[in-house]
Amino acid sequence: MSDLADRQDESSEAVETSECAHILVADDEPDLAALIKQKFRRRIRKGELDFLFAADGEEALDHLREHPDIDLVLTDINMPRMDGLTLLAELTQLKREDEVLGAVVVTAYGDMMNIRTAMNQGAFDFLTKPIDLDDLEVTIDKALARVRDEKKAAHARETVGRYLSDEIAETLLAGPEATQLGGERRRVSIMMADLRGFSTLSETLAPEQVLDVLNIHLGTIADVIGEFSGTIDEYLGDGILVLFGAPVEREDHARRAVACAVAMQQAMGGINEQVEAMGLPPLQMGIGINTGDVVVGNIGSEKRMKYGVVGSPVNVTGRIESATVGGQILISAATKAEAGEDIQIRRTMELAAKGFSAPIPLFDVAGIGGDVDLHLPTETRTLQPLPRPLPIRFHILDGKQLGDEAVDADFTALSPTGGCLRTDYPLDPFTDLKLHIPIRDATDRPFGHAYAKVLERAEAGWAIHFTSVPEAVAHSMRGYLDEAASA
Question: What's the pLDDT score for residue 373?
Answer without folding.
Answer: 93
